[in-house]
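Action item from last week, closing it out:
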Amino acid sequence: MALARNLASRKMRTESASYGAALPTAASRTWNGRGTMLIRDMNSEECRDLLTRLGSGRLGVARNNQPYVVPIYFAYEPDRLYGFSTVGQKIEWMRANPLVCVEADEVVSHNNWASVVVLGRYEELPDKPEYATLRLHAQSILEKRAMWWQTGYAASQARRGP
């Protein structure tokens, strides 16, 4: 099992929108019903609030120019996202290339949604004495979220087979 302090966020790219596809720019969009899309940047507080509230999103990793995106549960605290996973493809890829991103979004309706993309670096918290304090802290943060362990547990059961 690997506990990870997944993203020491260096940059937060944000979008909040109400209409259209997500663009790779930092913006918030709302549809005013008259054929106009209103665009605005989300501020840091709005981004942090969204990450705190959601607790789930998609992790993007890459290896040998091949991207890989998987759903994850996470717990947010300032400048950190904590996640839990059993060893598998995403952990192996993050060990090979620790540059990762997490996207989290909240969709209220087709034309009212917000999205945050956080870029950062994967840092594994191995089961070693020098990481014991960090592991306990990460676990205490994760335990505040219901089913924080589910994705890792489900993956380990699928690998075991019948």
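Closing note: The chain has one domain: 2-20+27-160.
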